[in-house]
Amino acid sequence: MEEASGPVPEEKRRISTEEQMKEAVREVEKEEQLYSIALFDILGFSNLVEHHGTKAVLDLYKKLVEIIHNVESTFSGGVPASGAVAPVPTSPDWKYNQLIADANGYIRACHFSDTFIIYVNYIFERPAWWLRDSYYEKYPLLIMEKGTEYSPLFWDRHHIYISFLQICAEFFCQALQSGIPLRGCISTGMATMNTGDSIFFGKPLVEAARGEPAQNCIGVSFGRSFNNYHPAYNRFFIPYMDHIKENDKKAAYLSPMALDWPRFWREHGEFGKLSISDSIRKMNTDPAFSQYYDGAIRFSDFSREHEDWPDHIDREGMGDITDYYERVRAWYRGLRA
């Protein structure tokens, strides 16, 4: 594995005011940094306008803008409570963890027409609170593809990524609850996200933008960069490939893993009181897009039925991440046989 280039600060930035935070972010955003980026598109946006009128769609759009800006961080807070708890490894094998609260990085968000982006860098780290609760992960994903890049900064502050995934899941679930169909893709890598000068470019943006439309259902996938960087814990993702379009070249930008947003929905009271399938069916009003909603319901059912999937992967003599994914695919094909 190759170590990715990019800044690894020798000491944490000491910021004591909101203005200092904004200035520090402006300076960091001018240079290429390690980012995790989630890109979401509204499914069938033009059709929504055509069938429901601009007023109805504008109301939905305003609601989504409000939701996305609610996930942004400020110096004093401003992040959803559900994304505030994350495990931090206390053993070299990442199996034993202590939970911390308020573990987020500095979450940023932006939107262009029907595209919404949530992103975080690993330079800034919000002060966290250590909790008494511990967390044991039987199968941490620590094996990566040979010859791919990784960043020690990402590893050192992996709890930021875990919180980021929860925030992405909450954003998607809130949109779903509000009747807004989203399709998203999460990527990690070096990028420039310069809000001040409106300059946004980098490999993770390309990966997310190309991977997002390669899905045949609403939901959130991971880009291939997931294979390179992530010792992510199993409860945040799940193997799934039925959502990937067949014979689509853009499918090469996707990992065989998807964000397990249905599990997030089930485990958080705000959403858990509601039926996922009922919430999805309410949006399924255009026959041209029915497959995307039906696919999301199937994924939700799969998540519930296979919550213990890590226990069923053959791990004997397992090698690198490529070997791991072959075994995941074998398990998945076995279910479909």
Descriptive tags:
13 strands, 23% strand, Alpha-Beta Plaits, 11 helices, 8-stranded mixed beta sheet, alpha+beta, single chain, 3-stranded antiparallel beta sheet, 337 residues
List segments where confidence is low: pLDDT < 50 over at least 5 consecutive residues.
7-13
Order of helices and strands: EHEHEEEEEEHHEEHEHEEHHHHH
CATH architecture call: 2-Layer Sandwich
CATH class: Alpha Beta
Q: Tell me, what's the shape?
A: globular
Total number of beta strands = 13
Mean pLDDT, to the nearest integer, reads 83
Computed Rg: 19 Å
Strand content range: 15-25%
What does this protein look like?
This protein has 337 residues and is of the alpha+beta class. It is built from eleven helices and 13 strands. It has helices spanning 18-29, 45-70, 152-156, 158-177, 203-211, 226-229, 261-267, 269-272, 276-281, 290-305, 321-336; strands at residues 2-3, 33-42, 85-89, 96-101, 108-112, 115-121, 129-136, 149-150, 182-194, 199-202, 219-223, 237-239, 254-259. α4 (158-177) crosses α7. It is globular. The chain starts with a strand and ends with a helix. The model is unreliable at 7-13 (pLDDT under 50).
